[in-house]
Automatic annotation (TrEMBL):
Record InterPro entries: DHS-like_NAD/FAD-binding_dom (IPR029035), NAD-dep_sirtuin_deacylases (IPR050134), Sirtuin (IPR003000), Sirtuin_cat_small_dom_sf (IPR026591), Sirtuin_class_U (IPR028628), Ssirtuin_cat_dom (IPR026590)
Protein species of origin: Hominisplanchenecus faecis
Subcellular location per the Swiss-Prot or TrEMBL entry: Cytoplasm
Cofactor: Zn(2+)
The protein, known as: NAD-dependent protein deacetylase
Amino acid sequence: MNGTEKLKELINRSNNIVFFGGAGVSTESGIPDFRSTDGLYHQEYDYPPETILSHSFFMRNPEEFYRFYKNKMLCLDAKPNMAHKKLAELEKAGKLKAVITQNIDGLHQAAGSKEVLELHGSVHRNYCMKCGKSYDAEYMLHAEGVPTCSCGGRIKPDVVLYEEGLDMTVMARAIQAIQDADMLIIGGTSLIVYPAAGLIDYYRGNKLVVINMSVTSQDKNADLVIQEPIGKVFAGI
């Protein structure tokens, strides 16, 4: 029985599946993985991405922050791939209870998923730091220089920057979902970003699946490891 067959069999035997995903879920939609060698590192900026995408840099140098952000993080033409679509189908069928994602691209919702817990926020929500007014991603993309509110305040994307804490309400819901799961599928993440990666420790079931192109810290604990592109794997389900 190959990996996809075994995955199908595990899904058939489960009724409370949780999916935990990272950048690898969206690479097949054309969104570059932040840390991959051909990702954001080979580029024309004076600072590494971690510096630019930090809270202090955003406050200190918003022009350069937004030059990078609009160029690299706002991939508004990207479309959901088979992984996003199949996860939405599994939710509709009542098998999948939650998608927990480290991605900020909104592709799970675009594919039709309803219960999506965004650990690192979303590019689709933006708010004025002065008056709180909301703006969509299109407004951010087309704004000249630093996006500014009608009140004159600076607009900030609702994404978790380096040096910022995660939303504790979202974290609590993610922990609860993982604790209740009878099957946990980890996909497209090498599990090196904390605190998000630490959520896996809350899983108490015995159907742990890892689908990732490279080795992860959970491979040794997994009941099934598939090292193939996740969209391709889900297409076979």
